[in-house]
TrEMBL record:
<feature type="domain" description="HTH gntR-type">
    <location>
        <begin position="12"/>
        <end position="79"/>
    </location>
</feature>
<dbReference type="InterPro" id="IPR000524">
    <property type="entry name" value="Tscrpt_reg_HTH_GntR"/>
</dbReference>
<dbReference type="InterPro" id="IPR028978">
    <property type="entry name" value="Chorismate_lyase_/UTRA_dom_sf"/>
</dbReference>
<dbReference type="InterPro" id="IPR036390">
    <property type="entry name" value="WH_DNA-bd_sf"/>
</dbReference>
<keyword id="KW-0238">DNA-binding</keyword>
<protein>
    <submittedName>
        <fullName>GntR family transcriptional regulator</fullName>
    </submittedName>
</protein>
<dbReference type="InterPro" id="IPR011663">
    <property type="entry name" value="UTRA"/>
</dbReference>
<dbReference type="Pfam" id="PF07702">
    <property type="entry name" value="UTRA"/>
</dbReference>
<keyword id="KW-0804">Transcription</keyword>
<dbReference type="InterPro" id="IPR050679">
    <property type="entry name" value="Bact_HTH_transcr_reg"/>
</dbReference>
<keyword id="KW-0805">Transcription regulation</keyword>
<dbReference type="InterPro" id="IPR036388">
    <property type="entry name" value="WH-like_DNA-bd_sf"/>
</dbReference>
<dbReference type="Pfam" id="PF00392">
    <property type="entry name" value="GntR"/>
</dbReference>
């Protein structure tokens, strides 16, 4: 069966097949961002009822692949390959990328117990000489580096995951919850643009001084205790962070 055709016998819901076809076309830049994706056009293309079309579009909206313009229709969002919605919980980016069909790969290096820099110690309210688990994680999408993160985890000394465990699970906090019952309740983020250093330029394959996006995150447990800190550097043109506010 050719790519772009539905397979009613596959067992995969039709809306998911439609969503994946459209998501892939958007991600690969095979759509016109100025041309709306109308229900009528999609009904004619896929020859299905309105229900799977509407469900597919709704999920594409929630994941940031399309947006709705009042009175004009639904338009594809081109440019960034990865759009992180506000409801992706902290520490779950790797799983979100997998669920979105982007086939992420991750490498972990430099696992060790260290005393963090003074700024991080003050942010987390640590005792003098308290040591945290530290490591570097590089996540790539379709074999291209997307984000490099420096991570500090406040955890019992017995928490000593291997590189293989961290790469397989995608999140140190998932391992921490599984082994010690320590769960995250919330996270506070700060984001800004920066210019790539020589080292970052080499990691991401961009020119020195190119724009990068930095997101620093402080994690808190269910009891409100600081649980860790992360500084994540992203390729600016490939990553879009979507968030919501309430009054």
């Amino acid at each position: 069966m050719a790519y772009g055709e539905l397979d009613p016998s596959s067992g995969v819901p039709l809306y998911r097949q439609i969503k994946e076809i459209l998501r892939r076309e958007i991600a690969e830049g095979n759509v016109d961002p100025n041309t709306p994706m109308t229900e009528a056009q999609l009904l004619g293309r896929f020859d299905v009822s309105r229900a799977p079309i509407r469900q597919a579009l709704q999920e594409l909206v929630s994941e940031g692949y399309v947006y709705r313009k009042q009175g004009k229709g639904t338009f594809p969002v081109t440019g960034a390959r990865v759009r992180r919605p506000a409801d992706v919980r902290s520490g779950a980016l790797y799983q979100y990328l997998s669920d979105s069909g982007l086939h992420p790969t991750g490498t972990v290096s430099g696992i060790e117990r260290v005393e963090p820099p003074a700024r991080i110690r003050d942010l987390l309210g640590l005792e003098a000489h308290e040591r945290l688990l530290h490591f570097i994680r590089l996540i790539s999408v379709e074999n291209e580096p997307l984000v490099e993160a420096s991570i500090y985890v406040r955890a019992p000394e017995e928490f000593s995951p291997s590189i293989e465990e961290l790469e397989d699970r995608g999140s140190a906090f998932e391992l921490l919850e599984r082994e010690f019952g320590i769960t995250l309740d919330r996270a506070e983020h700060e984001a800004w643009a920066t210019a790539a250093t020589a080292g970052q330029a080499a990691t991401f394959g961009v020119g020195e001084g190119s724009p990068l996006l930095v997101i620093e995150t402080t994690f808190f447990t269910t009891g409100g205790l600081p649980a860790g800190w992360r500084s994540a550097v992203h390729r600016a043109e490939d990553f879009k962070y979507r968030f919501t506010t309430s009054r």
